[in-house]
Structures are given as structure tokens and as C-alpha cells.
Amino acid sequence: MSQKITAAITAVGGYVPEDKLTNADLEKMVDTNDEWIRTRTGIEERRILKTPGLATSDMAVPAVQELLKKRGISAEEIDCLIVATVTPDMVFPATANLTCHKLGAKNAWGFDLAAACSGFLFALTTGASLIESGRFKKVVVVGADKMSAIVDYTDRNTCVLFGDGAGAVLLEPSEEGYGILDSILKTDGSGSQFLNMKAGGSLRPASIETVTNKEHFAYQEGQSVFKFAVKGMADVAAELLEKNNLTGEDIAWLVPHQANKRIIDATANRMGLSQDKVMLNIQRYGNTTAATIPLCLWEWQNQLKKGDKIVLAAFGGGFTWGATLIKWSI
Ligand code: UT7
Questions:
Q1: Which of 28, 121, 305, 311 has its CA 20 to 30 A from that of 212?
Q2: Which parts of the chain register pLDDT below 70?
Q3: pLDDT at residue 3, as a whole number
Q4: Which residues pair with 81 in a beta bridge?
């Protein structure tokens, strides 16, 4: 009997814009201070895509180009490209289409996936299924968000939290059991009231009223989301370990969504993991929504060893949340 095909991560790429927005910069823009931001979130600075005319696809492209270079393949070899994002270049066509066009990925099909901060995990599981089915050999999964496009820089509740960036992984078939081993993914639409962007969709199309009411910006009731996020992310990560008969000792790294250091600490504690096993770059990039997890993989890839078991975990708007178990393959 032939070995089951799994989807291995065979290359990682990332991109963050050069421009930095520090806590000191924000102190000049809204009534906030470095001490509050650091202690409540862990964030010190974020990257912002400032150049006019550039959008989410312009960060996805260099991230994918980096992974193609590392793997030594051309864009034409990509079979499918998925972009997880809540800040698409346009409502349509999909950012995946625009990214493929800019890359010269002429033989690829693709689509966008919107699951907010859990977008990368949802897209990774979707991409892995395409590989596991045996139908596709090279699937690229991107997490990319230009959050600065939907942040109100007069609202101190949200503007200190978010940044821009993109990360990408290449999935290829493995017959040795490497790659995405398991995922538990969840959604609960009753949470939509706490974290959303009210206008610009079919419910509230753009109008003078929606612009005046600032309904085209990300809205968050921080405390409510915090409560759900702490429980949701920690519970699902613990559930994934239990389901796979693992304990924290079996796990080399936790790769958490970077929304708030306190949520990350709670998840690590629940899994029985020490701080040195937790990837953390929130201090430099803030919350880049779908990009946080692949950006961690990008930055930590030299420390990862073939065979390492790692857990990815996220919680975000929707609500959406989940955890994914990976056996590292490069
Ligand atoms: O990634 C998607 C999922 N999102 C999350 O996981 C985010 C979850 N939520 C959080 O991380 C936290 O709730 C925040 C970091 C957003 C806020 O922290 P908090 O400890 O929940 O603060 P809070 O919203 O309860 O606000 C406490 C106080 C308030 O003042 P009063 O009413 O106590 O006088 C706020 O007005 O802090 C005030 N505040 C600020 N003060 C200085 C809110 N934002 C700021 C700010 N600077 N930027």
C-alpha cells in the first residue's frame, strides 16, 4: 500500500515594508503612551506600506518571489496560489489573481480567503487538502494584510495595534509524513459584532453616510475580543495536543498569532510551554492580521530543524480560530 501523501512546507518567504511607525510616533497622533502600548499589547513598532499606489499584492509578490528563489523554481511552476487577507487590493478581482499576474504565475489558479487573523491557518489547511488529494503539486499559501488601509489613525483603541506585512509558504507532497499533520478550525459568526468593518460590503455599500460615520475602518471592542481570544486560542491549542496524544514537551515551537502578548502567554501556559519555545515578533511588527504566523516562520526558519513538531494557533474576527500541527520538513 502506498504511503499517504501529506503537504510539506518546502520554502518560506516574507516581506515587511521599510517604514516604521513607533509608539513615540503614535504619541504625537493620539492620546496614548509607550508605557500603555507596551504593557497592554507588547508592541513597540509596526511597519507601514506608505508608498501611494501600493497594495496588499505588492507585499505578497516579494514574499512569494523569495520562496521561489529559495526553492529554485520559477513562478510558472506554481499550480495554485491562495491569499488569506481582509485587505484585498480591490473587492474583486481577487488579490490572488493580481499576485499571480505580477509574479508571472501563468499556470496557476487561485483565490482569496477571508478569515481575518485566522486566515493563514484556514488557507494552509485548504492548500494542504489540495496537495493531499494528489491533484496539485505546488501550492503557495500567502498571508498578507495592509492593515494601515483600514485603520483609523485618530482612534487610539485600534491604531496602536496593527501593521502591514506578508508571509508565504510553498506546499509540496511528502510521502515521508512531513508537513501539515492535523488542524482544528472553528468559526462563530455571533462574534461578528465585536470585531468588524461595517461598510463597503453588500450590507452597507459605500455612501457619504458610511464615510462620515467612519464605517470603512476596522472596529474592535477590545475587551470582549480579548476574553474570547484568550480562551479560544488556548483551548484549541490544548485540544489539538490532546487529540494527537502530545504534551508541551513534544512541541519544539508555538507559532501564535501576534495580537497581544498576554493572549500568547496564556496559550503557551495552557500548553505547558516555556517562553523560549514561543515565536514572538509582535514588538517589531504589531498585528499584521493574516501575515503574523508566516512572518514568524520566515524569521525563525533557520532555528527550525527537520522533524520538529510545531503548533500554529490563531484567533480573529468572525470569530475565527484554530490550531494546526506541523512536522517541519526543511
Ligand atoms: O487579532 C484579532 C483579535 N484581536 C485581539 O485578539 C485583540 C484583543 N484585545 C486586546 O488585545 C486588548 O483588549 C486591547 C489591547 C485592544 C486593549 O487592552 P485592554 O487591557 O483590554 O484595555 P481596554 O480596552 O479595557 O481599555 C482600558 C483603558 C480604557 O480607559 P478607561 O475607560 O479605563 O479610562 C481605554 O480608553 O485604556 C484606554 N485605552 C488607551 N489608553 C492609552 C485604550 N486604548 C488606549 C491607548 N492608549 N492606545
A1: 28
A2: 1-2
A3: 76
A4: 110, 140
- Best probe residue, ligand 1, of 29, 34, 223, 258 (max atoms within 8 Å of C-beta): 223
Catalytic member of 80, 117, 159, 296: 117
Active site residue 101: no
Task: Decide if 287 is catalytic.
Answer: yes
pLDDT value for 190: 96
| CATH 3.40.47.10 domain extents, the chain | 6-177, 181-327
Yes or no: domain 181-327 corresponds to CATH 3.40.50.620 = no
Ligand 1 pocket, CB under 6 A: 32, 36-37, 40-41, 117, 156-157, 160, 222-223, 225-226, 229, 259-260, 263, 287, 315-317
What's the pLDDT at 226? 97
> Where are the extended beta strands (E) located within the chain?
6-15, 20-22, 45-47, 80-84, 109-113, 139-146, 164-174, 179-187, 195-196, 219-220, 253-256, 309-316, 320-327
